Structure formats: C-alpha cells, structure tokens
Amino acid sequence: RSLEYKGPPPALEDGSLLQSTYSTRMRNLQAKIGQGPHDFPSVFSWFEASYVADAGPTTAARLASPEAAMLTMPNVINLLNGLLSLVKYGMSGCNGGFAEAYAYGACVDDGSYSSSIGYLGISLDEANTTAIAQDLSLMLTGGRLSDENRIMIEQACENQPNNSTSRCIMQLMMMTPEFHSTNSVTRSGEARSISDVNNAAVSEPYKAIVYLYIDGGIDSFNLLAPHTCPDTDLYNEYRTVRGLSGESQGIGMELNNLYSIPANNVTYQPCTHFGIHEDMSLLKQLYDVEDLLFVSNAGLLARPVDIDNYKGETPVSLFSHNGMRDETKRVDVFDMFVGTGVGGRIATVLNRRGISTNIFSIFGSQAYLTGIAPDGPAPYILSTQGLSTFNVDPTLSSMNDIIKDLNNASTSDSGWFGETWSTKLSEIIVNQGTLQTLVENVTVNSPFKLEDEINEIADQLELVTRLMQTANERGVGRDIFYVEDSGYDTHLDVKYRLSLKLPPLNRALDAFCSELKTIGLWNQTVLIQFSEFGRTLAPNSGGGSDHAWAGNHFMLGGSVKGGKILGAYPSELREGDTEGRILSRGRIIPKFPWDAMLQGVAEWFGMNTTDLDTVLPMRNNFPAELLYNSTDLFIG
Q: 96, 388 in Cβ contact below 8 A?
C-alpha cells in the first residue's frame, strides 16, 4: 500500500484485453510461503501461539514468536523471490512472482512491467539516492533501518541504469531484518558465523533416524488390536468397549479385518496373538521377518502415574493437541533444556563429540529438531515441492553477498526477532544452493506413489532417501529426519477415515523400505513412529473416537530386533481395572513413557549413559523395567 500498487501498467492500458481487465490472482500461496488468504493449515488457524523459533536468541529465552514457524527454507526463498519479482517486473509470474504466469510480455527489469497485471507505482526522485533510501526506510521499516544498512544500500544502488535506483533500493531493503520484524537492529560489525553443508571427511559409519509423526492422534488400538487371548476374553471386551451391540458393530476391528501376528512376549502381553489393521500390510510383512516391533501402552509421561495421581504428576495439557504435540516432540516436561527437542538434543551431543550431524524437517519448523545453543546444529527445513533457486536474475552482480552483509551479526541488545530473521536468512542463503544441487543429482529407484496420486507422506519419504544418498558429500556421519502424516483427528467415523488414510501411508512406507534396501541403507536406518496421544476406546455419537492418552507405536529398520510386541498391552479395558489405568470412555493412562523406545534408539545412534541424561532428562524418573536399551531394540 505504501508503495502505491497500481494496475495495469500505463503503457499497457490499451494492450491485451486480458492484461487490462484481469484481476490480481495469487494462487497457491500456502504452498509457496506457508500462508495465504482463506487457506490455513488446520482448524487451529495459522500459528501455534507458543511456538519458539529454532534459531536466534529467542530460542534460549523461550520467547514465543508464532510467525517464526514460517521461516523455513522453501517459505523464505519463495517469499523473497516473490518480493524481488514484484519490484522488478510487477505483479507477474516472472522468476518466482506471486501471480500466475501470463502468456505475454517479457520478464525485463526496465520499468515497463510489460509482463504484469499491476506494479508498484510510487514515484521517487531517481537522481537522489539518499532521499530515495530515506523515504523508503520510512515506508518499509517505519524509519527503523539502521544507518549502517541504509548507507550500504545507498552505495550498492548508486548509478543504476534506466532510472532503476529506487527498484534496487526497494529490493535490498526488503531483505533486511528491519523490514521483516518490528525491531531496531544494532550491528556488531562482525561477520555472522553460519554452519554450512560441507564436504569434510566422514569418520563414523553412517546412521539415520527417521521420526514419523502421525498428527491428530492416531487410533492406535485399531492399528494394533487384541486377536487371540486364550486366558482372557480381551478381544470380546475390546469389541464391547468399542461399541459392539445388537444395533451396531461399533468402531473396533473385526477379526477378519486384522493380520494376526504372534506377540512373542507372553510374559508381558495378555494375548498370544494380536492383529494389525488390514490396511497396513507392510507392518505385518516386516514383523514376520523381524524388522519391526511395537511398543504398546505408551505415551507422554513425566514419571509413572495411575488414576490417583496422574493430574498432579503430569504437568501438561492432557488430551489437548497443542500441549501434548509439543511435549511429545520435546520429551522434557520440566524444561531442563528449555526450548529444545529430543532430536535436536541428540544432534547437539553428537556435534560436541565431533560426529558431524545434519537434521532435516520435511514438514515445516518442528520443536523436535531444536538443539541446545550454541552447539546444536541448525535444522534444514525443506519442502517436497523442491528447492527453488534464490534470486535467479539479480539486479547487482554481488547482490547475494550484499544481502548477507545486511544481515550480519548484531549486538546482544539488538532486536531479538530481527536477529532471528537474519540468522535464518543467512543459513538459507549459504546452504540452499548446495542442497539443491546435491538432491537434484540423486536418482530414486522405487515408485513412491500411484500414477496421479497425491500422497504427501510419500513425497516426504522420497526426499529423505534422496538426502540420505548425499551424506558423504555433506560430510556427515549421522542424519535425523522429521516427516509427518496429518489428518488422524478422527472424531467422526474413525473406521472410514482410517480406511482412507492408512493405505497411502502403507504404500509410502513400503516404497521407503524398498528404496533403503536398494541403496544399501536399510541396516543403517531406523524409522520411529509417534503421535501426540491415542484415542478413546469408547465411540462418540458420530462413530468416531476422541482425544485420550496411551497408544501403540512402532519402529522399523534392518537392524531392529523385531518380531515382538514390547510394552504391556492393557489386560483390562473398562474403568475400574485392577491396575488403575482406565479413565472414563476408555482413556488409558500409559504404563510406558516415550523414553522407553527413545532410550534404546539414542544408544544405537551413539549416546552413552551420560549423554542420555541430556537427551532424555526425564528417564531417571522411571524404573529400568519401563525403559529399553539398544540391546533390547537392535541386533548387534
């Protein structure tokens, strides 16, 4: 608005009918920059109110910055490309522009905006660089642009041809921390230190953790159900609690819709056989060859609890998405390592020991990957849409270097949100091109999707396999990946919803496992599955299940000591059970913590006993029999 957007360009008012009458359309902004009009990512709206950025001083201070969740590599690149395009070419599709690409006019930065349907129409004195910079500083940053940054921009944009000084200054000013935050920025005069994708020699044998998060709270008592229970009537109890009656089949799984598997752990399980959901055939196949195991009756716990003390001893927002989602990824209820996530802490420990580790999210900014400052590596946040090239046709030959200088290190009392922007942007500029080249040069052998299928989790897992194959070029011995499958908040018609969601997930996991075997990384990779909570055993009036607590989760990989069900599947499913774990409507208090699986995984990944106290700061609250070591979970 301050730059007086107008349309169409004056030279084209009598030109193409389409161009002179077409309304502004900016499609697919959600996919490009993480947000867009009338297009929000979930029913909980745009931003998580408690989100803390994974970079900059706000991380350690736990200062919430909800909008910082948008600062991913794809979002930032696409946002800045769109802003650069708007200034140079007008509202168009040129070089990553926000609008659709129209079939007329050339993408030329000459002030004619011939490819656009609108442009920034403000008129400035092109002969007075200082006056332009001062005016634009007022309009774009509220006058907060530091003198150092303003002078740097003026010097870079002096003597531009074709009356383009103002366009040059606009572009650079839109890259500054003062434009992207409401802070004033005080430069320290020092260059910013950025960890980059390197090609150092790798001394450690490669290993990878893939953290699969099933968002919404999967109904995991239909994923793994009782089947054959000679000493109890647990299957019939399960069906009854899940709503079986003379009028309804309820929401429980029928025996002929389950793949039967032996528990291979009769000491701790109430059934000799359990059933895997019919739409997850891969889990059955991997279980049979001992490459997959389940941990049953597990969930977020701060310490062992039962029906008498769980409220006072579990200081989280129980049964809520935001509270349990965040704490499931952090596994640090008492904030011993404030603001960090379990994956980020693993990477921090490895970096301190000289084992180079990269961490990637293929699904936006995630607390799981936030490490301990200053040793934790910065996460690479990628998109399945691929990596766009930043600033394809720069106005200045050294423009990207100038942008980095505009975002150099600031003083400790400088604006913290501005520093967060500059940290993220600097990391992105340094690493985007390298990652883009590496990933695009990798061949994928397995078909991850059906023809014309939309399958986001398949796209994510395919990108993971591409990144794994670049480990040597990146100089790392360890990778940690975050992927997410959403849409499991099944308040309505849970059985039907699972029949839609599980087949694509099964196909994606099948292709992922096949690709790992083809590229020789099956034995070096473990995939661990989590969800914020399980769901009520009792159905609601819409044939759905609601928020609960305990659930069943799985892990798979070539080194997994699989073919067994760990944990302790509940032997009673009605309120008033002898263990005191069943709440109303079949909400189950977990017996095993998330730490049970995570401890053994962390040990397999290279953690020693001392390291584990950092990675899992709550583990000492649990007796040894509720935790698993690497020898319990892995071969060798």
A: yes
Closest CA to 252 of 589, 543, 492: 543
Beta bridge partners of 484: 213
Phi then psi for residue 261, to 5 deg, are -135, 145
Q: Stretch 108-124: mean pLDDT, rounded?
A: 87
pLDDT at 46: 61
Q: 160-175 pLDDT, tens per residue?
A: 887 899 999 999 999 9
Task: Kindly give the pairing relationship between strand 5-6 and strand 119-120.
Answer: antiparallel
How far apart CA 74 and CA 235 sit, in angstroms, is 48
Alpha-carbon distance 65 to 47, whole Å? 9
Q: What is the pLDDT of residue 1?
A: 85
Burial 120-151 (b: 16+ CB within 10 A, else e): beeebebeebeebbebbbebbbeebbbeebbe
Question: Residue 629: what pLDDT?
Answer: 97
CA distance 148 to 577: 69
Half-sphere exposure of 422 (CA within 13 A, CB side): 31
The whole-angstrom separation of Cα 156 and Cα 173 is 11
CA distances from 205 to 468, 476, 609, 635 (A): 13, 9, 21, 16
Q: Which tokens go with 553?
A: 């989760």
**Where is 632: in which H helix or E strand?**
helix 630-633
**3-class SS of residue 134:** helix
Q: Which two tokens stand for residue 503?
A: 């087949």
Asked if residues 554 and 529 have their Cβ atoms less than 8 Å apart, the reply is yes
DSSP result, 498-566: HHHHHHHHHHHHHHHHHHHHHTT-STTEEEEEE-S--B-SS--TTB---B-S-EEEEEE-TTB--SSEE
Contact 297, 591 (CB under 8 A): yes
Q: What is the largest CA-CA distance in the chain?
A: 91
Is the distance from CB of 273 to CB of 263 less than 8 angstroms?
Answer: yes
Alpha carbons 182 and 418: distance in angstroms, whole number: 8
Q: In 10 A of CB 9, how many CB atoms?
A: 23
- What's the length of the chain? 636
Q: Name the pLDDT band for 38 (thresholds 50, 70, 90).
A: confident
- Ramachandran sector of residue 452 (left: φ over 0; alpha: ψ -120 to 50; beta: rest): left
Residues 6+ apart with CB under 8 A from 563: 264, 287, 288, 289, 290, 292, 293
Cβ(75)–Cβ(33) under 8 Å? Answer: yes
Among 215, 228, 295, CA closest to 258: 228
Which uninterrupted H or E stretch holds 381? strand 380-381
- Convert the pLDDT of each residue in 333-359 to its tens digit: 999 998 899 999 999 999 999 899 999
How far lies 57's CA from each of 107, 339, 410, 424, 634, in Å?
40, 11, 11, 12, 38
8 Å CB contact between 344 and 375 = no
In three-state secondary structure terms, 224 is strand
Take residue 540 and report the two structure tokens written for it: 């609601």
- State the DSSP code for 294: E
pLDDT band at 468 (very low <50, low <70, confident <90, very high): very high
With a CB cutoff of 8 Å and minimum separation 6, the contacts of 93 are: 99, 100, 101, 102, 115
